[in-house]
Amino acid sequence: MAVSLSKGQKISLEKEAGGKLTKVTMGLGWDVRKSAGFLGFGQKTKQIDLDASCVLFDERGEQVDVVWFKQLKSKDGSIIHTGDNRTGAGEGDDEQIIVDLTAVPSNVKALMFVVNSFTGQSFKEIENAFCRIVDQQNGKEIARFNLSSQGTHTAQVMAKVYRHDGQWKMHAIGENASGRTFQDLMPVMRQSL
């Protein structure tokens, strides 16, 4: 059973997975909050384009690479974004980033996962938002973090996956921020390294 993380919580991914991990998927899911309409009639749903990104950092806190909707694969090929979902429609993960943990270069110490509203809407207009880590080998969900905090923020630093004592760990960060792309979130990410 997956661990339901709270803000600030840290876990060992391999301990929670029950063994050695080679590949994981970070899934991001969300729904657009429906507007009420008059007496329940005329409900409207708008499109909100949330974007998941993964920024790779070295031990000095310098950006090594990034995977996002404009670069779907890391330069070394260890991390792949499966594509941009511009609506949040559908069930389950709306965007996924696949990480081959065995191929992440040794100089990379942290993978920072962020989400931002490229279209600029705030999280007041989003519901059922989550990020989760899944073991690629067996499809088992290892951990889930609820992102549905209502507010005027347009982005969030979701989580950090990092190396510690030869193991991959996860830190549920959940820091609200504002920005349309990962570049706007760099100051908040650096505080969480």
Write out the strand line-up for the largest beta sheet, numbering strands in chain order: 1-10-9-3-7-6
Low-confidence stretches: none
Mean residue pLDDT: 89
The SSE string, one letter per element, is EEHEEEEEEEEEEH
CATH architecture, by name, is Sandwich
Number of strands: 12
Largest sheet report: 6 strands, mixed
Total helix count?
2
Helix content: under 10%
Strand-residue proportion: 35-45%
Number of domains: 1
Write structural notes for this entry.
This protein is mostly beta strands and 193 residues long. It has one domain: sav2460 like domains (Lipoxygenase-1), CATH 2.60.60.30. It has helices spanning 13-17, 186-191; strands at 3-5, 10-12, 23-32, 50-58, 63-67, 79-81, 95-100, 108-117, 126-135, 141-146, 155-164, 167-177. The strands form 2 sheets. It has a 6-stranded mixed β-sheet. Strands 2-12-11-8-4-5 form a 6-stranded antiparallel β-sheet. The longest helix is centred in the C-terminal third of the chain and has 6 residues, at 186-191. It is globular, with a radius of gyration of 16 Å.
